[in-house]
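Recap slide: Protein kinase domain-containing protein, sequence and predicted structure.
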Amino acid sequence: VKTRRILVALPGWAVDKASARWLSRTTMEMRNVCKLTRYVPEPEQEFAFLEFEYPAGETLETLLESKGRLSESGAKSVCRDLLSCAVVNCISTPLRFRGLLDASSVFTTTAGTLSSIVPLVGLLSYKGIKACVTRLVESGADALLPPELARAIQRGNRMGVLHPGNASASDTYSVMATVLASMTNTAKQRPAAVLSNEATTKAMSQFANDLLRKALYKDPGFRLNCNEALSHPWLQAER
């Protein structure tokens, strides 16, 4: 399996040797997601550098271009995979995995068929991934990022998004925006605009529409978290 690597810089206070060892053990068990391969403290610079290795695959944009629109049953499977990964990979603040979709999601494929999807690296960190996300925001290609994350990146303040309660709602938004894009082939459009299209919503089942709307609220306080989304009737129905 081909792999890619990403180097993330974190403030020294956010990660020490003990937490790096714990993170390494944790990620080694997630071999299909990513693993910490190197920890390099730089006390003089007050940073610690962490190198992650993860499976190389297709980005969402590549997938949609090559496969086009997914069926509702296919999108449902994608949704379960993404939400389940988001729940498993919610490592407590200040270290947690974030799938910054266009920037870092990896789609693993078997014989050209979508087999599993993992929201991958990105440690939503104070450094490192910031430049990548900032470019997404500035270029207007951030349709799959939750609004609060896009605003936080622009302000340079991500503490609120890092809070575990807020982070789960942010994950749900990103996951469901991805699912909506996969069902409608609209990766570059904001979810609100897609859901306002009557022809689009009529093409989806009532349960799918209900979950999408509840998970894509602009205000994270009204949004379903990952566990709540997984319990929704649309995902509980027969596969």
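The chain has a mean pLDDT of 66.
The first strand starts at residue 3 and ends at 11.
(End of recap.)
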